[in-house]
Specification:
The complex is a heterodimer of chains A (312) and B (243). Chain A is of the alpha/beta class and 312 residues long. Chain A has two domains: 12-228, P-loop containing nucleotide triphosphate hydrolases (Rossmann fold, 3-Layer(aba) Sandwich); 232-311, Alpha-Beta Plaits, CATH 3.30.70.100. In chain A, 36% of the residues lie in helices and 27% in strands. In chain A, strands 5-6-7-3-8-9 form a six-stranded mixed beta sheet, with helices on both faces. A four-stranded antiparallel beta sheet of chain A has the order 11-12-10-13, covered by helices on one side. Chain A has a three-stranded antiparallel beta sheet with strand order 2-1-4, covered by helices on one side. In chain A, a hairpin with a 2-residue loop joins β8 (207-212) and β9 (215-221). In chain A, α3 crosses α4 (141-153). Chain B has 243 residues and is mainly alpha-helical. Chain B has one domain (6-239). Chain B contains ten helices and no strands. Chain B has helices spanning 6-21, 24-47, 51-86, 90-93, 99-129, 133-160, 164-182, 184-187, 191-203, 215-239. In chain B, α1 (6-21) packs across α5. The radius of gyration of chain B is 18 Å and the shape is globular. The two termini of chain B are 25 Å apart. The chains are: A alpha/beta (312), B mainly alpha (243). Chains A and B meet through α2 of A and α1 and α4 of B.
Amino acid sequence: MAPKPPPPIHMIDVSGASKTFGNVVAVSDVSFTLDAGVTALLGPNGAGKSTLFRMLCGLTTPTVGTVKVLGRDARKDTPVRGKIGLSPQQDALFDRLTAQQFVEIAAKTHGVANSLESTKHALTLVDLETVTNKPVGSFSKGMRQRVKLAAALVNDPQILILDEPLSGLDPVQRNRMIELFHSLGSQGKCVLISSHILDEVARIGSQVLVIAQGRLAASGDYRDLRTLMEDQPHAIQIRTNQPRRLGAALLEREIIDGINIEEETLNITTSHIDTFGRSIAPIAKELNVSLNEVVPMDDDLESVFRYLIKGK
Amino acid sequence: MSSIPALQAIKLTHNVLLKQLITKGRLIGIIIVGLLPILLGWVIGRQSDDPLEAGVGFVSYMGLSILVPIVALIFASASLGDTREDGTLVYLWLRPISRLSVSIGAWAASVTIALPLTVIPMTISAILLDAGNTVIVGTVLTSILAVLAYSSLFVLLGLIVKNPVLWGIAYIFIWEAIVASFAKPAAALAISGYSRAIITKRTNVDFDYLFDPSQGVSALMLIIITIAGIAFSSARLNRLEVP
């Protein structure tokens, strides 16, 4: 009988990982594997994204479970740390160094053979080639973010862990960086990017991990996540001069599922968001009712997470 | 996948942390503090009837018990302590370099600044004390050994506690200055006990200290403290939860 082949080594392998700080559970029983490509880690602030990233890099140990990068534990294995590029969430840099010095130190401490060339290349990738001799302490938030990215890229790592790398960047820079991430992913690198902005995640990659309250709420293709969200009833607030009349008409036509009226405010839920969007104005016109405001109440990320957690 | 050679890693860590440690405010403050023993040395040298005893007493109490530990505390506790507090430690920690190299690099950066800022004013004051070459040589030798030991201890302190400067001041002014004066076991755990012993033994000035080790034992202990501090810092880095 042929020997059983060893299980494949994933670029990132998280198995049953939990992290607690005293009584606070930051990450709870999270498992996933990742290989080459771009993956977005989506979650609201305080969901456990940064703690998960810190565990991946070995900066903190999981209380329970295992976290492996390229089959190794980055906390214990010195050489594997040379294969990881991290752009941490915190803003702190060695402020007295110039951008060139900061990135070059990263290159040298990673043992990059031609550190000067690699530094120039990394700074060019993030569009900082014109300010290399300025101290990073004088940089704007967006520039500091890009210096961190350059330092994470300078050793050409197989694993890139980027904690909120787009925060502080202007729209043009965001587009440039998202292009860069896709290019790195297609080069066979495992790029894991965290964000708490849904639209940003849609553009970062089709693969998503959703984390909420420390738990992995969903993982897979972003389009599946959208579908899941679209299946949920939407909550909408309408301010009108005749809420009872308008509400009754919407119920009668089976456009809405639930209704709650408070003075001139109509709170509704609907599973037919597209029909609602198309019909609300004509119905109001037909009834001669004025629409002062129509506000979706649950298209924020927190609501998405609530749906996902409820669905689990 | 390979690690960075230890010497290269130490040099890189040293260079980065040195740049972070040298701030204008710190330097001006320390230079002003350093001028004080020079001035006092000059005054004592002119007015004392027994320049040897006065000189050794001054070097022991002013230099080795205050100036050297305070300067070492300010720089050594900040070397890794500041990076831990502000979150920049990750840029040294998440690299293929050993923890020992980071600890040695941080210690070396602290010593690079603390040595000239203490040994130079102490040597000048020893010269102005006019107490002879034995006191000058003893001052230089003892100051160097004390800086090495204190720096090592305070690098570790910066990795263990928040507000290491406050803890360090408590150690210097409560443990070393008060507790160690009344209890022999406490004196054996005070760096100043060994550094003062070297200068008093070299100059044959007897101050009736509670704790009175020989020169050889004192020098050896200061070296052991230096090595132990670096080793514990390295172990601490291994266990540290990096922000």
